Each structure stands twice: as C-alpha cells, then as structure tokens.
Amino acid sequence: MSKFELDDTIAAIATPAGEGGIAVIRVSGPGAFQAVEPFFVSHEHGKLSEALSHTIRWGKFTDLAGLLVDQVLVSCFRAPRSYTGQDVIEISCHGGLAVTRKILGCLLGEGVRHAEPGEFTRRAFLNGKLDLAQAEAVLDLIRAKSDHSLNIAIRQLSGALSRTLKELKDSLMRLLAHMEAYLDFPEEDLEADGKADLQGQFENVQKKIRSLIAGFERNQWIREGLLVTLVGKPNVGKSSIFNALLERDRALVSDLPHTTRDHLEEALEIQGFYVRLRDTAGLTSETEHPLEQLGMDRTLGSLKESHVVIYVMDGSTPFEEDDRNIFHLIPKDKKIIALVNKSDLAFRIGTEEIKTFLGNKPPIRLSAKTREGFKELEEEIAGYLEQGTSETGEQITKLRHKKALEAALEALRRAERSFQMKMSFEFVTPDLRAALEAMKELTGEVYSEDLLGMIFSEFCVGK
C-alpha cells in the first residue's frame, strides 16, 4: 500500500449487514473529523473538528440538504491514541440496511474512500499499534467459535505470543553476537566452557521452536474445529448418540437398518472446545441397494478426513465379524474412542472378544437413552485437545507461523552442524542470520506487500 493510500481517509460499515439494534460506521484518516462534520448536527456541543479525543457526542446525521438520516452517537479518537493510529470517528446509528448505506453514501460522496478488507487493521499494523501476529489475532478473535479458541486469540492479541517470539529472537541475536565477537577478535581463543555455552544456546532455542511447531496441528483443530466421526454397523445407535450429544433431534432415528445414507455434520462445544460432529451411514459387508453402497463409500471417506473416530458397538447384541472388519477399516493414525452403546439393555456383547483387538483400554459403556457414559465420552474428546499446549505456554494457529518457525529451525540446524564440525564462524553466522530473518517475518519486522495483501484480504471490510 502506497503512502498516498495510507494518508487518505477511509470509511466502512463495521457491523454485520442486516437489521439490528445498532450499527457502526468507522472512519479513519487525517480527514476523518472534517469528513463527518458537514453531516453532524449537535446543539449541545461545538464543532466536531474541535472535539477532544475519547469523547462521545449525541446529535443528528443529516444529508447535505439538511434532511435527517438518523439520530447518532459519534465517538471521537485522536491520533495516535486510536485503533489505527490515525484520527478515527465511529458513528453509532440504528441498525438496518437503509440507514447505514445512507450514512456511508454521504461520506463517500464527499471524497472519503471505501475501505478495503482489513484496511483498518492494516493501518494499525503499519502505524505500529500492533505487530503482525497481533493483527492476525484480531481475525481469530472475530471468528472464535469456542472458549479455548477465544482464549488463544485474546492471548495473541495481548502480545503473549509476540513476547515469546521476541525472546526467541533475542536468544538468536545473543548467539550471533557472541560468534561475531569471536570473529572480530580471532586472537581470543574459544575456551571449552565457551563452546559448551554456545552449544547450549543452540539446543535451548531449537527446543522452544520445536515445542511451538509440535502444538500447531492441535491448535488448528481448536481454531477450525475437531472433526469427530461416528462409525459402526447399521442400527448400533450412532444417530441416537449424535442427537444426544447435540441435545436435539437432528438425525432421523429408526429401528430399520440403513436409515442414515449420507453423513450429517453439526457443530457443538464440548468443555470449551469447538467440535464438528459427523454421523455416518452404517458399514456392512453386504448391500442390497446402490444407495447403501454410496452411503458406505462416503463413510469411508469421512474416516480419512476425521481427527477422532468414535467406534460404536451395540452392547445388546453379540460381537460380529462386521464389528471386527469395521474396526480394521479405521486408519491407524486416527484417535479412536470405542463405545459400547445401549447399556440400558441386557449386555450380550463378548467382553473378551473386544479386548483381543482393542487392547487393555476398555470401551466406554454408554446409553443414548439414559445418558450414561456421555460425561466420560466428552472428557475423552476434550482431553485429546488439551494435550496440545507447548512448553512455552503459547500456541501458534497459523500455517504462516509454522512455516516461518520451520524455516528458522532448519537454518539453526545448519548453523549447529557447521559449529559442531568446528568450521569457521564465518560459515555459521549466515545461517544464524537466516533464522533471525524468519523470526522477524512472524511479527512483521520484515514483510512484503504481497504478504500483507494475503493476510488482510481475509478480514471483513469494516475491520
């Protein structure tokens, strides 16, 4: 974005389109106060251009002909004490398509430019109000679907992740400074203690970076939703469990086999985690209708996509070969939670048979009717996600973060190999600098216009 584009005045509707009690039109730029002043009438206050920062004024928004558009509250923020670091005005009006479009249209008609997606937050970043990791957290905060994803976004927005990244960057800079000092003063011999200290620094930084990377996948699940799929024979009660977890009748339940012929997916929150729960068609060795086969094919596809598979058996019937075959269809890299459903009925399934392929961990006995076992099932799902916290205490959620950390780690490994081979520090320091550059990309100390365009294009227009 050019300097000219940064120095003009922009406006956009900052609240979702549609009817509501209130809507907000945000204006930012050096001409924000002058742009709004011709349309704002307040008999209780002086000129809007003379308003102090962090004050709110009540009045009327009129068009240039003096016709009333709405009664509004105008919140005033003076640079640099604003979200964008520029003069900012937020016009709070009644929610509705007509009134918000009319107010925005009045401003755009007088030379204010319509904001691009994410441009307010982009200006906040370019004006030093947020670093890049914090700016990305703004979008995560808006899109948070559970308590845990919200907490991660709040911590990142508050700068917790940025502080962790800064500590890693500072450690790299100290390591680089030590080596450059030895290059500047080659007559100083590097003692054994000094070599051990440098080796320790290599190992410490790499350990922390690996810890952040290791938690990425689970953090993605927390942010995007853990996909949990119910699988089993027809009529083992998958749809009943599905409905019971959702606490509403979403899936059709029947005593007839193959009632579910396509998968159903719904979102829910389990102990503060966002979960995408999927019900699937029952699997069997023989099919009587082409639609049954199509349903089973989709079930097999769901197994490959899933993060967690809930393997359901019917406790009121004997264990069958189909039960065994279905279990072996589940990919080995999936987390499996085994359930014996219908615990409210007479127990007829063979316990020893189950043990032969499930191992020592017993399945959860559950009843969709009495809700026995549901607390244990929810704890099992939530416990799988709770394992993802890194040793640093902070968590990365973006693929961009992961790739930058992987680039830094690989550069560090090259530098460490050169150091261990007792090569001149002239061959070690370039890789250390490459690791530093990768770390700087994370917080936006080093960035490209293409990178900013990619990040902020995901934002809504008013943010």
Can you characterise this structure?
The chain has 463 residues and is α/β, with parallel strands linked by helices. It folds into three domains: 3-130, Probable tRNA modification gtpase trme, domain 1 (Gyrase A, domain 2, 2-Layer Sandwich), CATH 3.30.1360; 138-215 and 396-444, Four Helix Bundle (Hemerythrin (Met), subunit A) (Up-down Bundle), CATH 1.20.120; 224-386, P-loop containing nucleotide triphosphate hydrolases (Rossmann fold), CATH 3.40.50. Helix content is 45%, strand content 16%. It has helices at residues 3-7, 32-36, 97-108, 119-126, 132-143, 147-157, 160-184, 192-214, 216-224, 238-246, 290-305, 321-329, 351-358, 374-386, 399-420, 429-443, 449-456; strands at 10-13, 23-28, 40-41, 55-62, 68-77, 88-93, 113-114, 226-232, 264-270, 273-279, 308-314, 335-341, 364-365. The chain has a seven-stranded mixed β-sheet with strand order 3-4-5-6-2-1-7. A six-stranded mixed β-sheet has the order 9-10-8-11-12-13, sandwiched between helices. Helix 5 (132-143) runs antiparallel to helix 6 (147-157), helix 7 runs antiparallel to helix 8 (192-214) and helix 8 (192-214) runs antiparallel to helix 15 (399-420). The chain is flat and about 85 Å long.
